[in-house]
Amino acid sequence: MLALRLARGSHPLVLMRRLLVAAASAGVGFLLLCTLGYASGHPAHSAGSVLRLLWCFVPLAATVQFAVAVARTDPSTRPRAGLSAVGLGPVRLSVLAAVSTAVSCTLGSMVALLFFLHLRGDLSGLPFDGAAAGLLGAGAPLPLAAALVLLTLVPAAAATASAMALRTAPPRATGAPEDADDLLPEEQIPAPAAPPAGLPWGVALTAAGLAVEAYANRGSTGSAFPLPGKLDSTPAWVLVGWTLTAIGLATAGPGLTYLCGRLLQAVRPGAVRLLAGRVLMNEARRIGRPLGVVCAVLSAVIAAFALYGTGPRPFGPLTALGAVLVIGCTTATLLTSALEARQARAETARALLRLGAPASALRAATALRAAALLLLFAPLTWAIAELAALPLTA
Amino acid sequence: MVAPPDNDVIWARSLQHSHNGSPALGGVSLGIRDGEILAVTGPRGSGKTTLLHCLSGQLVPQQGEVWFNSVPVHTMGPRLRERLRRDKFGWIAPEPQLVPELNTWENTALPLMLRGTGRREAKKAAMEWLERLDIGMCARKRPHTLQQSQRQRISVARALAAAPSVIFADEPTATLHRTDRAHVLRTLTSAARSHGITVVLATHDAEIAALADRVVPLLDGRRVATVALPAEADTEGRAACSLSV
């Protein structure tokens, strides 16, 4: 109940983020139910059903990542003096975060179930002249227990992940009260984050992934990499290669971001370059991982377009929904992490403004950070996409 | 609008301000002469910080006027006030408020660098002040590795290095022990006197206020003659209690 009460009083933007989580959860729930519908409608094609189910885990992982990022930025789940005084410590707050994440994800799952049943015609006849009947396996009855299990996947995974993320997160300094007449206890300056160490591993994993994928395609015939609707060869090794590449990029992301910040503040920096570079170095871990994931997703999308973009019917509606979910969730996660970094630095920014730092200088530093990251990651994404598509098109 | 007297570097007339309806300042007027050290005293919640915010242009008073060197501050736009704070004012807060990502000399040189001074020149000025405040050996350390008193001295050096004409110090020694407190205050006041910098010092401590040339006592947002409060509330019916530590 406390989760709901806190949610009711929160800022519209916070509610908007929660609604986006609910929407993503609805999308994933819908995809999972479609897989179930396909499986119950085509009992003979069990391999195809399993492949579809496995593909659903990509948007599911993206949604869970987004839900965790939203839970971390939610002001109602941050350690606060007011709640700490009434006995809500970090543990209870992580439970609170898990509950509110579960609530928004369950809301999405319910919407997905209703929408799915409506499209199948189980509620009030077939809408749209039964256009979606074949896709959703309208004829076959839906096993209720399986549907419920699939629908609880997203809320359970997201709630567990956000509770664990908030349990392990370092306690954040609470914001100073506006009234500086109240003398504050000694200021605790958090130690800056250590430079991330994953860069060599990330590069190695990415290279290994690309190599596995290229090796798997030697001498194969037909389309080496089927999207869920197309089942003409086994994509196992290609998938392993792409997964390795994606993990490698996510591991290398913080290291690359740190490097970027280091280069930005090198060689006699002025105030703006100094602030931009040092902050980027400090926030490398927070920003770098979602940035690496976005980079991996975008390179996969570019590669997929290079392979299938020219065909008459490149992908079906459900693949499109999944792709939109993955791209949307990873991008939203990146933006939410940037917001979290901004929240963590709000106190320093206020102190700088008090010194008379022009607001335009702070904005320039932010823009410089974004530009530097874009300059590093855009060519990287493109290069990885080209390398990934090369063995498949040759 | 009456033009202020010429010999005052800052001149304020009947400042009134309230935070979300709760009154903070109720008609405070004062003039600050060039090069003097002025202490604003009073207990907590008497409006010292709000007064300093108004005088330094961080806050526009709801009523009243603030003039700096015969230029009205209360009619300036936010951009001009920001520029005024950057070029003419220094600010020392109760907490050091350093940028955790920058090392000591970079923190100290930051106001100069924000003004557009060259890196070498800014570093030279910063190092000079750090040496004078006995923290030259920490110049390359990050704030989280230093003690609170060292951080507060960096904050003082940061305010002094930019060579402002007025330094506003809001309870600059509130979080320090007595020995560190004396050191920080002595360096601040002696540096201000030798460089002709005006200092406005908010404090609730009579001992600190004794270092100033002049004292302006505030009580509940008004200027009073003295802040000698009536003695402790009656302890009638309560046994004398002692606390052994």
TrEMBL record, chain A:
The chain crosses the membrane at residues 49-72, 93-117, 291-309, 315-339, 360-385. Keywords: Membrane, Transmembrane, Transmembrane helix. This is Integral membrane protein. It comes from Streptomyces poriferorum.
TrEMBL record, chain B:
SUPFAM superfamilies: P-loop containing nucleoside triphosphate hydrolases (SSF52540). PROSITE patterns: ABC_TRANSPORTER_2. Residues 10-245 form the ABC transporter domain. InterPro entries: AAA+_ATPase, ABC_transporter-like_ATP-bd, ABC_transpr_LolD-like, P-loop_NTPase. Keywords: ATP-binding, Nucleotide-binding. Pfam families: ABC_tran. One of its GO terms (molecular function) is ATP binding. PANTHER family: IMPORT ATP-BINDING PROTEIN, LIPOPROTEIN-RELEASING SYSTEM ATP-BINDING PROTEIN LOLD. Belongs to the ABC transporter superfamily. This is ATP-binding cassette domain-containing protein. It comes from Streptomyces poriferorum.
